[in-house]
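Exercise 3.2. Students should predict the tertiary structure of the chain below and write it as structure tokens, then compare their answer with the key that follows.

Predict this chain's 3D structure.
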Amino acid sequence: MANLPCDVCGKNISGNYSVLNGKNCCSQKCLEALLDKCHHCQKPLTGPHMVVDGKKFCSRECAATVLPKCHRCGIALFGESINFISDQEYKYCTACAQMEPCFACQLPEPGTRLRDERLVCHRCQKTAVTNKAEALRMFREVRAVLKTLGYAACGEIQFDLVDRPAMKRAAGKLYNERELGIYRHESQTTTTTTTQGKVVTDVVTTTAQSCSIFVYDHLPTERFMETVAHELGHDWCLHQFGRIASNQISEGVAEYVASRFNEAMGWARNNRRMESNTDPVYGAGYRLIRDIAQRSGEAGLVAYLKKMSQ
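Answer key:
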């Protein structure tokens, strides 16, 4: 076995040696030089190892450095995870995904329990709208922005920032704990008849209308203003086209108006929730109205809504 060189260091081999993939190695050090390395710590892979996205790791700890983490507890997501879409995609382990969600963003995050039992997460709480005067100012700002976009609301709209008991009273039988706001339109028709003896001399019919919007307190600023835009979208649709029988179309229009508001404010990222919403009324309705507007323009959308209100 004279003059058998090591294929790694080039030294002549004397004594025992190893062969790896057809290459001669004079020592353990030279042998390990030929082995694949752990992507994280660069140690030679001398035994069983893990492969993640085509990268090799010597241990679970090293593999964890490149895996996505649970947004709540921070553990590496080796197995099944659950994705939530809000302004972006958030990943959670199966345990954290079962936690009670924030009432505002619907993410299973830790937070503060309000007096009416709603849970608001710490992130949403940072910009939570709790002052009625400030909420009214924002309401007027949203209304002004929508007017520039062509979605002018009717004349007088009463607005109120409310907690859960007040929202239940305002919504009545239509209360849905997942909804963050409500638009209420009421009309009352009064007929006055004037007679002289048995002869009717005059008949006057008057209709009084009242419009109200109620939005939850403790919503973060962007979500609050988006919700206001949604409810104002209902008002615009009602006064432009009358009542539309399809709840999917009605809610789709309101979501579409809210999405246009988000875009105008530079908050288009918040529309990801609408884009991915699997709800057959809100999600499918939004995408229906969005597609009509993209395909036929605003004039085409108006023509469609006029047809659907007949």
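Discussion points: The CA atoms of residues 154 and 239 lie 7 Å apart. The chain has a mean pLDDT of 89.
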